Amino acid sequence: MKTIIEPFRIKSVEPIRMTSVSEREALLKQANYNLFSLKSDDVLIDLLTDSGTSAMSTKQWAGIQMGDESYAGSPSFYRFEQALKELAPFKHIIPTHQGRAAEKILFSILESAQSTDSSKTQIIPNNTHFDTTRANIEATGSQALDLVTKQGLDPELELPFKGDMDLMRLRDLLETQGDQVPIVMLTITNNSGGGQPVSMENIRQTKALCDEFNKPLFLDACRFAENAYFIKQREAGYQDKTPKEIVQEIFSYADGMTMSAKKDALVNMGGWLALNDDNLAMKARNVLILTEGFPTYGGLSGRDLEAMAVGLEEIVEEDYLNYRISSTAYFGDALDKLGIPIVKPVGGHAVYIDARAMLPHISPNDYPGQALAIEMYRLGGIRGCEIGTVMFGQQVDGSEKLAAMDLVRMAIPRRVYTQSHIDYCIECLAEVNKNKEKLRGVDISWQPPMLRHFTCHFTPK
Ligand code: F0G
């Protein structure tokens, strides 16, 4: 059979409240046309993020009943630790309440382990830092450097591993400023670059470079299982390996990882920092106790640790990953056939529409990404997220700079929507595309001094 079905049945349902176009027009006005200000009850299909929005399985809910809430030494922690070590056998596993907490702890201890010459800025390279990772690095006074390959920045180019690190530039950095680099990072998949995967070959070679210069390699592994499935599909030599074996190989090259369990551990809240270095682990646990909690719960309930333990088993199931990657591609391919420009190839967790290319009659200064996101909600009740000049254009000195691209991300929550929900989104976007000449840009009528996309007000032109 060619049809790929959702590899689950639905046992518990959450109703979607239907709304009309005229109702949504009023709701948009009330929200000052900022989709973050909408109540989620007023959204039909919520594609704002794939983070923390997964549906849990019967086994995960059963695990929740088993949660042991002891302050110290809970068996739920040991179950979680064992499940993670099965995939990523790091010596020290430190739970945190979500990914950015693990990042904050890691970068604060690297700072204290800083090199002898404190006048030099510390530099942390990555293929592309996610925005919280970048912000946590910059908050310590260090520099976050993106070194993804040039091909990874071209939305049209169809290549299998557009998340790869540019090894030449990494070598150059390590040769010329290596003393300022405490760790090298690699984000799998590369969320800020369109959810593009990193090849095993690139991970291996990044590790070889790290070894040559004696630097630890840390993975930002939020979507590690999706990355592994792309390796299985696209990289020679991996077709007959199981996703679990591929995941194990990926982690065998790393010295540590930060993780948001809200993605590829199929839970609504959770994360961790894992690493091999004893001294760093001791420092991390000291900060953890100050900011998150005792090392066997780290800001989470025992039941959350149980849900993560089960999620880690389910995330590497081949049928799940086949459905996950195929269903995201199904959405993207349909938009491509309609002539809607998208970032290619389709990534693992989201489809990104190139709004600047789709709406050339709207000046980039008038935020075409926001105009498209508003129209998708108005017409179909679909909530996506502008990733463009609204998000990145505001400079520290208050000036405005165009972002490299104006994208609208439609991130797909895991195991939540069925194919008919996606068909509905495709139909809505076909309709938007048909009448796109009528769309107008927006003005920003109010904005806070930073991170404006969450709260700013828009007025349609
Ligand atoms: N790293 C990557 C690659 C991410 O995508 C995220 C979160 C984080 C770190 C931070 O994890 O949210 O648990 O603190 N990404 C979400 C998104 C928010 O919508 O892409 P967190």
What key phrases describe this protein's structure?
40% helix, Tryptophanase, alpha/beta, five-stranded mixed sheet, EC 4.1.99.1, three-stranded antiparallel sheet, Aspartate Aminotransferase, domain 2, binds ligand F0G, Aspartate Aminotransferase, domain 1, 461 residues
Quick recap:
The protein has 461 residues and is α/β, with parallel strands linked by helices. It has 16 helices and 14 strands. It folds into two domains: 21-50 and 318-460, Aspartate Aminotransferase, domain 1; 58-314, 3-Layer(aba) Sandwich (Aspartate Aminotransferase, domain 2), CATH 3.40.640.10.
The chain-level mean pLDDT equals: 95
Instruction: List the total number of helices.
Output: 16
Question: Gyration radius, to the nearest Å?
Answer: 22 Å
The proportion of residues in beta strands is 5-15%
Outline the low-pLDDT stretches. none
The tally of beta strands, per DSSP, is 14
- Going across the major beta sheet, what is the strand order? 2-8-7-6-5
The CATH superfamily label of the largest domain reads Type I PLP-dependent aspartate aminotransferase-like (Major domain)
Q: Which structural class should the secondary elements be placed in?
A: alpha/beta
CATH class of the largest domain, named Alpha Beta
Biggest sheet overview: 5 strands, mixed
Q: How much helix is in the residues?
A: 25-40%
Q: In the CATH scheme, what's the topology name of the largest domain?
A: Aspartate Aminotransferase, domain 2
Cofactors, ions and other ligands in the entry: ligand F0G
The topology string of helices and strands comes to HEHHEHEHEHEHEHHEEHHHEHHEEHEHEE
Per the principal axes of the C-alpha atoms, what is the gross shape? globular
How far is it from the N-terminal to the C-terminal residue, by CA? Answer: 50 Å
